[in-house]
Structure formats: structure tokens, C-alpha cells
Amino acid sequence: MTDLITSEPAAMPADWTVRSPHRIKRARAETRFRLYGIVAIGIAVAFLASMLLTIFIGGAGAFTTSKIGLDVTFNEQVIDPSGARDPASFRGVNYRPLITGALAEVFPDVEGRQDTRALYKLISTGAVYQLENMVTENPDIIGTTQRVWVSAGTDTNLYLAGKIDPDMPQELRQLTERETGWIETLKSAGHVKTDINTSFFTNGDSREPEQAGILGALMGSFFSLIVCFVIAFPLGVLTAVYLEEFARKNRLTDFIEVNINNLAAVPSIVFGLLGLAIFLNVFNLPRSTPLVGGMVLALMTLPTIIIASRAALRAVPPSVREAAYGLGASKVQTTFHHTVPLAMPGMLTGTIIGMAQALGETAPLLMIGMVAFIVDVPTSVVDTATSLPVQIFLWADNPEIGFREMTSAAIIVLLIFLVLMNLLAVILRKKLERRW
Amino acid sequence: MDALTDTYMTDTTQEKPADMIMTARNVDVFYGKKQAINNVSLDIPKGSITALIGPSGCGKSTFLRCLNRMNDRIDICKVSGDIRYAGQDIYAPKVDPVALRARIGMVFQKPNPFPKSIFENVAYGPKIHGLATSKSDMADRVETALKQAGLFDEVSDRLDEPGTSLSGGQQQRLCIARAIAVQPDVILMDEPCSALDPIATAVVEELMDSMRDDYTIAIVTHSMQQAARISQKTAFFHLGELIEYGDTTQIFTNPKETRTQSYISGRIG
Ligand SMILES: Nc1ncnc2c1ncn2[C@@H]1O[C@H](COP(=O)(O)OP(=O)(O)O)[C@@H](O)[C@H]1O
Ligand SMILES: [Mg+2]
Q1: CB contact under 8 A, A326 and B101
Q2: Which residue has the higher pLDDT, A291 or A199?
Q3: B contacts of A337 (beta carbons < 8 Å)
Q4: pLDDT of amino acid A3
Q5: pLDDT of A256
Q6: Contact criterion met (CB < 8 Å) for A326 and B162
Q7: Does domain B2-264 have CATH number 1.50.10.20?
Q8: Labelling A280: which of A11, A119, A146, A257 has CA 20 to 30 A away?
């Protein structure tokens, strides 16, 4: 042995060297394969990036809006002719003359019914409600003159955002040459500013793009997901625990298992039909509400949760169960003291992924009527509502140009929530696993 | 059968049959259609270490797991015959296997502490059986069990650290402490040292020897040296049958069966 070590090393066999034909062939195959991989990933990333880019470019505009500054005189004659200052009477007053009056200050030479109406169209129809709210909140402003920044009208907004092509023939354009001239006048007189579009985050849907907001759909989605979670999580986890830990393996459980797996592959619109037939027509639950929407989404999410939870339970090492049984723990004790807590991170991850799927689901909600035009922001699970993806569908379907960027903006909001939910799944899993 | 009758006869000259804490008569075990144990009869004397040896796959674990009904958990496993603990048929319909396992504890081949703290590992048994009367009583029980398992000095300052952070040998002693904390009469050990290094094995063997006064131990081992070192009784299994059972010294110095002879001299297995 010692001889071998001290003696000169023998010449290396030819097929050991890096230059051997085998090794060169192998290296080439490896390089080629790595290249395929990089190309595939590159294509996928390019698609994703271009999709996100178009959505973000298209939607960015919806987060800002143009405001028109008007010096409104809160004329007592118009608002409160009796002088009683009864707050109830401020509602239902026609505030339009205040706006036309303020506009007349800026454009003294615009006269006649038709022209004043055209001028008034530059301002959002929601402006009167803004004035109404101001007066109701603070009746003291009656009789004073204030600079009020009101939302610009739909077309004004488009024009100020550069979305109206000035080279288009006048008949096809939303705004005439004269109207764009008015806007330019307002602009040069400092009556125009760009602002964050708060109404996008605080309003429900509207016929007017500048007044339409995402909050209604967001709350609809939120309430639906709450209902979905409350139903699907306990049901799914308990089903998984029963099938995995308690049920005997026989024909019946095999049959159930196959059907749960099939259920996961059923198109979601079928669940919507089921919801329509059972929850609405048989149980007469309120139509178009997050309650029913959440129940339908729960049906849809259930198979995902069951399958993920079973996988999580199966991943718990059998030695843990043996240890508990060996100490004289009962089946229920073993399951709920040891197996389920150890499987919980996996169960939660599966649930959140299922819920994220549910958040993006549209078809089943169409079937149960969560597709209506709803202005009010829902405040409970039994208020009529839409959901984020349905809102996107509705806005995408709207021919008005102003809704185009609203659609993209809503998609951005939906994507942000999806990313947040997946992030939550990752954090939760990390946190629960880090315990030991 | 001969061997058994023989040992039984020789035993009665020294010990009364009442000292047999567990008795098995004509035990057959089937996994589905496959027979894993064939007509085994064997008595385990109280306060001693009984070793089950034999080539792998001969049914040692299967037989051991019959003694505290751990095999109930396997759907296809069918046990017949008569197995008694303290004179009671443990397979009688009115016997609760959960309560039985509190009397007959088990330690497994691979150390399997719960992924909880060292304290919680030991406290779990007393907790589910309602043994502790107060928090301090529980702490006492945990300490006593850890001391009996010879682990207390090593872990006393880190009882709230996870049991899985200990070394393999310490984990196995933690599992023994966990079994002791329930105060069983019998502890079944299925190759408890097979995953341990020789030094940890020596520590566990010493521990088993010291436990003999308070507990009856039945241990499966693939190491004949281990059986010779620690046990008073040895049973040799082969192909699901009990070939020979007797005093360890007799089995290792003067086996009656040729198959036992071949196995301990290394010709089978
Ligand atoms: N859960 C089981 N299902 C089916 N067969 C089993 C099972 N456990 C053990 N067996 C079979 O029973 C026989 C005895 O196994 P075992 O008791 O584990 O042997 P040993 O512990 O002596 O190595 C083996 O042939 C094994 O294949
Ligand atoms: Mg074994």
C-alpha cells in the first residue's frame, strides 16, 4: 500500500480526460439542454412582462383624474329659499344652477340653452352631489363663494389625458373644436389640475367613468371570500381528516376519493348552475349577494382544500402517530394533538391557494346574478354586490372609452390582491414551520 | 413447542407462574392471507428483560406489536390466539386498547420525539391520562422520568427546546422517558438501538439494565451481542415460528435447536 502512494502516478487512462470524445459529447448535450431551458424561460418571462406592462400602462391613467376649479357662489335663493336651514331640505335641491353660474363667470360670452348645456357637460354630472355634500356637512357656506374642485366630465377627462385624437374629424370626436377651446381656456386660467382619483377607491360602480369606483366590487369579493372561507375551510379540513385518519380503506372511500378528484376538475360554471338551482331556487336565498356567491365559491374551493389537506396529512410521518398511540393516546387525541397541527401549514397553504382561485372566478357568479349594475357599496353578506372579476368583465364590456383604463386599473387591483394572498400563504407556511 | 415446555418446566422450579406478567398461547398473525406468526407461545417474566432475536422478516416486530395491540391499527392484520397481561385476555372485546397501551408502553426503532419541546414530550402521556394533579406535580413527573432515563442532567437547562434538536441517542432516551412518564408495567422496545452509534447504544443498554427493577422489558434486537449482554430471557424466531425460548445464557452457550445454533454462530440471517 505505501508503495503505491510514494511511487510515480500512472498515466491517466485516455477516457478520463476532459478531452475524451465521450466527455465532449456529454458536455455538448448539457449545453444544448441548458440553452433550451433558458430559451423557454425567456419566452415565458417575455409573455408575462408584456402582459403586465400593457395592463399597467393601460390602467395607470385611471388612478389620476382631472379636476376643474370653479368659484361657486352658494346662493341662498337656490339652496334654502325659506332660510330655515333644515339639513333635510338640502337634499334634493337642484344644485345645477350653482355650477352653470360659476361657469358663466369664466365664460361670460357663452349664452343660449344649447351652449350652456354644452358647457355644463364639461363638468362631471357627479359635481352636484359634491356640492350637496358640502352644504349638508357645513351649512355655514351658504351665501359665500368658494373655489370648489369638481370632477371633470368624462370627455373632458379624456381630452386632458390626451386620449382624444385632435386630428379626427369633428363629427366622430366626442368634443367639438369649440368645446376643446373652452377646456384650453379653463386650463390657461388655472382652473384645471390633475389629482389622485380617490373616487376610484371609494365609490361603487357608476354609468360615468369618472365617478365609477372599485370599492363596491372589492367589498363584494371580500364578503364572498369570507363566506367561502367560513364554509370551505372547516368542511374541507374535517373531510380530509376523516378520509385520511379515520375512514377504513374500502370501495366506498375509494369512490368518494375519485369523485372529489373529479369535482376539482368540474368547470366552475357548473357550480354556478348548481348554486342557481339549489341555493336560489330551492332555498330561496337572496339573489346576487355575497352570501350565495360565497357558498358557490365554497363548493368550488372545497375539492382543492380537501386534496391539499389530505396531502398535508399524508406528509406527516407515521412515526408521530405511532409515538402517540404507543403512549395510549386515542385516535382523536393523536389526530388533533399531533397530526392536524403538523399538517396545518400545508392545509392553510392549500386553502389560501383555493381562495385565490375563488377570488379570480367569474363564471359561477354570473349564474347567480352577481353581475348586475350596482352603485351602492355592500356592507354585509346579504347586500346585492358584484365581485372584482365580474366588475372587470362589466367594464370591459362597456363601449365607453373612459371605462377602458378603468378595466385595466381593476385588473391591477385584482392582481395585487392575488399576489398579496399568495404572499400570505408563503409567509404563513414559513412562520408555522419555523416553530421547530 | 418442545423448547417452550422445557423452559416452562425449568422456570417453574425457580419462579412461580404468577410471576409471568404476559403470557401468549398459540398466537397466529396474518397480514391478509400471508401468515407472519405461526402458533407462537411465550411467557414474559416480570421484572426482567426478554430479548426477541431472529433474522429480519421473521416476525419479531409483529409479535411484539401484538403485546400492546399496536397491530389493531393495521386493517389487514388479524391476530388470533390467547395473549394475557396480568392474567387478563387483552384481546377480549371489553378491553380498551387505548387503556392497555398506557400499561404497556412502546419505544420504536427510529427515535420519534414529537416536534414539541422536551418538556412537552415527556408531559404528553401524563397529560392525556390525567395523571398530574397540578402544574408542579407535572414538573416533578417530567423530572423523575427524565432522571430515570438518565437524560435529566443533559437537558435540565433546556427543557423548552425542541426534542428533535437532541442527538439520536438522547432522542431515544427521551422516548424512553416519555414512555416511563405514563408509569407502564411493561415497555416494548423494537430495535431501540439500531439507529444509534455504539456509544449511545451502550448508554441506552445501561439504562435498560437499570430499569429492570421497575419495569418489565421486551426488546427486539438484531444484535445477538446486545441480547446476550442485557437480557435474562431470549426467544429465537425463525420464519414466523418460535424456535427456541429460554434463559439467555443457555440459548447462547448451549442451544438445544440446531437452527438456533446456526443463527447465533452466524449461519442464518
Ligand atoms: N403492515 C404489514 N403489512 C403486510 N405485511 C407485513 C406488515 N408488517 C410486516 N409484514 C410482514 O410480516 C413479516 C414479519 O415482519 P416483521 O414482524 O416486521 O419482521 P421482523 O421485525 O422480524 O423483521 C414480514 O414478512 C413482513 O413482510
Ligand atoms: Mg422489525
Answers
A1: yes
A2: A291
A3: 124, 128
A4: 52
A5: 92
A6: no
A7: no
A8: A257
| Residue-level pLDDT at A332 | 95
Average pLDDT of span A401-412: 89
Q: Ligand 1, atom 8: nearest CA belongs to which residue?
A: B62
Confidence (pTM): 0.81
Mean of the per-residue pLDDT values for chain B? 89
How many angstroms does the Cα of residue B242 sit away from the middle of ligand 2? 15
Compute the average pLDDT of residues A320-343.
Answer: 94
CB contact under 8 A, A338 and B114: yes
Q: How far is the CA of B28 from the centre of ligand 2 (A)?
A: 17
Domains recognised in chain A with CATH numbers: 64-196 (no CATH), 215-432 (1.10.3720.10)
In DSSP notation, B180-201 reads HTT--SEEEEESTTTTS-HHHH
Kindly identify which residue of chain A lies nearest to residue B65, measuring between CA atoms: A326
Domain ranges of chain B: 2-264
Place of cell 406592462: A53
How far apart are the C-alpha atoms of A135 and A270, rounded to whole Å?
Answer: 50
- Please tell me the distance from the alpha carbon of residue A247 to that of residue A253, in angstroms, as a whole number: 7
- Mean pLDDT across chain A: 88
What confidence tens digit (pLDDT) does each residue in B10-46 have?
444 444 444 889 999 999 999 999 999 999 999 999 9
β-strand partners of B40: B27
Grid-cell match 416486530, residue found: B61
Residue B178 has pLDDT above 70, yes or no: yes
Residue of A320, A325, A333 with shortest CB distance to B114: A320
Q: What is the DSSP string of B47-98?
A: TSEEEEE-STTSSHHHHHHHTTTGGGGSTTEEEEEEEEETTEETTSTT--HH
- Which of B33, B38, B61 for mutating ligand 1's site (highest number of atoms within 8 Å of CB)? B61
**C-beta atoms of A327 and B179 within 8 A:** yes
